[in-house]
Amino acid sequence: MLHILLVEDSSAQVLLIREALRRCSVPADVAIAYDGEQALRMLQETDFRPDFIILDLNLPKFSGLDLLERFHNDRKIPIAVFTGSANEADRSRALSLGAREYVTKPASFDGFMTAICGMLQRWRADAAAAGTGV
Questions:
Q1: How far is Cα 59 from Cα 118, in angstroms, rounded to an integer?
Q2: What is the phi/psi pair of residue 52, to 5°?
Q3: Which residues have C-beta within 8 Å of that of residue 32, sequence separation ≥ 6?
Q4: What pLDDT does residue 123 have?
Q5: How far is residue 5's CA from residue 33's CA, in Å, rounded to a whole number?
Q6: Residue ranges per structural domain of the chain
Q7: In whole angstroms, what is the distance from residue 118 CA to residue 72 CA?
Q8: Contact by Cβ (8 Å): 99, 70
């Protein structure tokens, strides 16, 4: 089972991501952090170690970019930015801070489902290639 930390302040987006996981048949335990401060606290817990982080940029308390700066030295957990921002400066900054990928949230339901499934399939392929398969 995949352990995912989803850092997303929108309850509607959380539901959509959970639906995408179901549709693409990814068995996952999803922990939710609704703001950057909560995510940071969760990651500082010694017994909490997700396999993968899905991170929105536009968050209360600490932005996704603030969190990436704090995670910068710990690249052991793959981070995918999944955000509404199509800003190239945000994209460049996120990738320079260690995000494995940057995906702009599609406006359509089908596009949203495809984006999440594709992201998870790429991550699972990378994990399998590295011998850490999930």
A1: 23
A2: -160, 145
A3: 6, 8, 14
A4: 79
A5: 7
A6: 2-129
A7: 24
A8: no
Question: What interhelical angle do 11-23 and 109-129 show, nearest 10?
Answer: 60
Spatial CB neighbours of 113, under 8 Å, sequence gap ≥ 6: 16, 19, 20, 23, 24
103 DSSP β-pair partners? 82
The CATH number of the domain covering residues in 2-129: 3.40.50.2300
* Model pLDDT, residue 31: 95
CA atoms of 74 and 58, how far apart (whole Å)? 21
Q: Which of 129, 130, 120 is nearest to 53 (CA)?
A: 120
Question: pLDDT of 38-95, one tens digit each?
Answer: 998 898 886 888 888 999 999 998 899 999 998 765 657 889 999 999 999 999 999 9
